[in-house]
Amino acid sequence: MNLSPGFLDAALSKGDECYAIMDGARLAAYGWYARTPTSVSEHLEARFDDAYVYMYKAAYVEPYRGRRLHAIAKAGALAAYRARGYNGLLSYVAADNLSSLKANLRLGCSDIGAICAIRIFRERK
Question: How confident is the model over 88-97, as pLDDT tens digits?
């Protein structure tokens, strides 16, 4: 699980929240949820309508893979955010991440588009 102190400081300072599934005291799965613009990569930022929450950085501990925790966690977070007045969730899934794409389809998520980013010029340092 890649949750460095720097990541945690940045996410929590902008109000992001973590929705996790625990097995007793053991972490099984988690996802982070943002209500403000959020970095997707070093040079790409997700910006979205205030009526939605952006889900990012989902992860699952190996012994829990295959138990459909992604769908369970996302459905639970969606219910919590809808109860707080949000219209729904948005998330970005890499096109080659077939297990996450299938999990999102099983949950009833809609594919609303694609992101293609290319760098034309290299940055000078």
Answer: 999 988 888 8
The answer to whether the CB of 25 falls within 8 A of the CB of 16 is no
Given CA atoms 62, 68, 70, 72 in this order, what sign does their dihedral have?
Answer: negative
CATH number of 5-107: 3.40.630.30
pTM of the model: 0.84
pLDDT at 32: 95
Amino acid at 52: Y
21 beta partners? 29
Summarize pLDDT for 3-61 with one digit per residue, the tens: 888 889 999 999 999 999 999 999 999 999 999 999 888 888 889 999 999 999 988 88
Distance CA(37)–CA(49), nearest Å, equals: 10
State the virtual CA torsion across 64, 65, 71, 75 in degrees, nearest 10. 20
49 CB-near residues (< 8 Å, 6+ apart) = 87
Q: Could you give the CA distance from residue 89 to residue 77 in angstroms, rounded to a whole number? A: 9
Round to whole Å and give the CA distance between 30 and 59.
6
Boundaries of every domain in the chain = 5-107
